[in-house]
Amino acid sequence: HFIFNCLNSISALTITNPTNAQEMTIKLSTFLRNTLSKNEHQKNKLSEEISYSKLYLDIEKIRFGDKFDFIEEVEQECKNAEIPSMILQPLFENAIKHGVYESLEKVTIKLKCTKVNEYLKITVENNFDPDSVPKKGEGIGLKNIQNRLKLIYNQDNLLKTEKLNNIFRVNIYIPV
Questions:
Q1: d(CA 10, CA 114)
Q2: Which end of the chain is more exposed for a tag (fewer CB within 10 A), N or C?
Q3: In angstroms, how far apart are the furthest CA atoms of the chain?
Q4: Burial 40-56 (b: 16+ CB within 10 A, else e)
Q5: How far apart are CA 50 and CA 89, in angstroms?
């Protein structure tokens, strides 16, 4: 869906804002190049995954303008830790799909990482409009993350979700 949405947005931008269409095309091609090259690695440094996720968010920023902000609160000791490749991407896609798409208000997407005991605690959260009609989702992205974490670390308690008032939060625990 993301790729088709981007291509449709690029198509529309070629008429209304060719500079943004060019920028979006370049970012999309870089994003896709990174996706293909990351398929060879099971794990990457958190800092690499964050930079990859920021590229995705930059593409969405072109589509949505000022409709969302991104805040990063990552402790220095977390940045070099290895995490499963592409584990953050579905979380940011969900934040856009269920937060930004659905809300009339500005959405804040926040990424946090701290070390808690023998785990990295990675949190992605976003506000959402509790009165909007939610898009039906099957939770496949979250299930896939949970299954990958279980396969890699042999634990089934490494993903937790919370929905509090107008905040949706996903916590991932990565053993270190």
A1: 37
A2: N
A3: 53
A4: eeeebebebbbebbeeb
A5: 9
